[in-house]
Write a structure and sequence with these properties.
- This protein is mainly α and about 325 residues long.
- It has a domain of about 70 residues.
- The chain is built from 17 helices and no strands.
- The protein starts with about 25 loop residues before the first helix and ends with a helix.
Length: about 325
């Protein structure tokens, strides 16, 4: 049979030749999502085992990192050490550890501002009375560093903070140190804390006023009274509360204002929880001072205030009226 006479096989219609394509979502998943998931799992496994290894480190090893590590390693080790001590302060308290901790605080270079803040917090957590003179000197050290010429910030190894960042870190470290002194509760800290009541930074004045009340030493009274007219609202209220703790009624007028819920709600610098805490503290302070003009306000708050904590504190205060 002649091959040329054979009929060629018919071609399928055009629509049957349409290319079969995978959905776009499947392509995205195949080339992007799945690889990312695999990478994420690998990173998570790496971090998990790294975390386990880090958690197994001893307090002494963290202190060694603080002593000899790079800039970033030092403050990260100090941060981890804070968390370890908070979880189990008695588990790390040994004479050798405390001695090395205090040495790390005292001998830290000027640029280790964050490290000193964390180490001060640890000494506060441990309530280490022998550290009080060192912490008071630390307050003075940070104050002097505020006037240091940092030049091009060459002392900082891995990052170049702005002068504003350095100033903020110095203030924050002073605040950590003041809280530590308040936590330790040793009255030998009073002269150093009272000195910070005159600090130029309102945040430091504010905490210094609060800690002065916590320490409960009458030597702070004369230094606190001028703060009742401070330009910063928080400072005025903390000074009034601190004076009340010390049995001084000089700030009573300010405290009575804090029993007015409408007035407190108008304070823009406080969260709702902070406003409630402010009223509760004012109620307790005025009850301690036995101010008769506050009794009717206690009664109103005990019945009408929306916060249960305020109502409860007011009921307790009424027992003293």
């Amino acid at each position: 049979m002649d091959e040329s006479n054979r009929n060629p096989a018919p071609l399928p219609p055009d629509e049957e030749l349409t290319e079969v394509r995978k959905p776009a979502s499947l392509l995205i998943a195949q080339f992007f999502v799945f690889p990312l998931i695999i990478i994420g799992i690998c990173v998570a496994i790496f971090l998990f085992f790294g975390y386990l290894t880090y958690e197994q480190r001893s307090p002494t090893q963290f202190l060694e990192d603080i002593r000899s590590g790079t800039g970033t390693q030092r403050w990260q080790a100090a941060f981890e050490l804070v968390n370890m001590v908070k979880r189990n302060p008695e588990g790390v308290r040994t004479p050798e550890f405390v001695e090395r901790l205090m040495a790390a605080y005292e001998n830290s270079p000027d640029e280790d501002i964050r490290v000193r803040g964390y180490l001060a917090s640890i000494l506060g957590e441990l309530k280490e009375r022998s550290a009080v003179p060192l912490l008071v000197k630390g307050l003075e050290r940070e104050e002097k560093l505020k006037t240091k010429n940092w030049g091009e910030n060459g002392a900082f190894q891995l990052w170049r903070p702005s002068l504003t960042e350095i100033s903020n870190d110095l203030v924050q470290t002073q605040i950590y140190t003041l809280f530590a002194l308040g936590s330790i509760g040793d009255n030998s800290a009073v002269p150093g804390v009272v000195e910070q009541v005159k600090n130029q930074d309102p945040s430091v004045r504010n905490i210094a006023a609060y800690v002065s009340g916590v320490l409960g030493d009458q030597r702070a009274v004369e230094a606190l009274r001028p703060l009742l007219t401070d330009t910063t609202e928080d400072v005025r209220y903390n000074a009034a509360l601190a004076l009340a703790r010390l049995g001084d009624s000089e700030g009573s007028e300010l405290l009575l204002k804090l029993l007015d819920r409408a007035h407190v709600d108008s304070l823009t610098n406080f969260t709702p929880d902070q406003r409630t805490e402010l009223i509760v503290n004012a109620v307790r302070a005025l009850a301690q001072l036995k101010q008769p003009q506050a009794c009717e306000m206690f009664r109103s708050l005990s019945q009408n205030d929306p916060a249960p904590a305020v109502r409860s504190a007011s009921l307790e205060a009424l027992k003293r009226c």
